[in-house]
Design a protein that fits this description.
The chain is of the alpha+beta class. It contains three helices and six strands, in the order αββββαββα. It has helices at residues 10-23, 66-75, 101-115; strands at 29-33, 39-43, 46-54, 57-62, 79-80, 90-93.
Amino acid sequence: MGDPNRKLTAAEEGVLKRLRRIYEPLGGVVEERDKFGHVSIRVGKKTLAMLGSNDGVPSLGLKSDLTTQALLVDRGGFYRTPYVGQHGWVSIDGTVKQMDWPAIEDVLVATYRALGPKQKPGRSA
């Protein structure tokens, strides 16, 4: 079992900083640490992303749908997340400079729109 109080590596901190630039404007998104020391990025009770480490290399898991997952895996750089891939989760490993940020942003924002707070009728975004 991991350490819920483990210190994030500098590389994980870099990825987390870049992720915050994507999700902070969305509203209602929070970060939590799980019992393994991963950073969970959530809206309400729904998890949008998980950040951890594979042998010191940041590993980012993103909630997506099965179609998006298949497209990203086929394109390369992403892989089906172990244990939860059957639910559409897709992962990418690497440093900030190595990750595909346009794809990450597209997936994170699309999942937020699907799972996040709904606009009330009559109000525009």
